[in-house]
Design a protein that fits this description.
The protein has about 90 residues and is mostly helical. It folds into two domains: about 30 residues, no CATH class; about 55 residues, no CATH class. It has five helices and no strands. The longest helix has 13 residues. The radius of gyration is 14 Å and the shape is globular.
Length: about 90
């Protein structure tokens, strides 16, 4: 997310550090660690998922933690092996 802001692909209403601090106040919102299990899963995603390492890690994390994603990313939206929230 921070890289998307840096590259101009995502615009936030405030600076990214403040936005993250505010986001982490909400119940259930947390930053998850990159574990060896997630790193390995990111290289073994089922089906055809494109080769963006950051997106592979995001999808692998969602699969390992069994949590849905909210995204506008076209490639992730088209990937049938991850749960998405509408």
């Amino acid at each position: 997310m921070v890289k998307a802001v840096e590259k101009g692909k995502l615009e936030l209403p405030t600076d990214v550090e403040k936005w993250l601090t505010n986001a982490l106040i909400y119940p259930g919102i947390q930053i998850l660690p990159l574990t060896p299990q997630i790193a390995v899963e990111s290289t073994r995603l089922p089906g055809n998922f494109y080769k963006d390492p950051a997106d592979q890690i995001i999808v692998a994390t969602a699969r390992i933690y069994d949590c849905p994603l909210i995204t506008f990313d076209h490639a992730i939206l088209q990937y049938p092996h991850v749960e998405l929230l509408p």
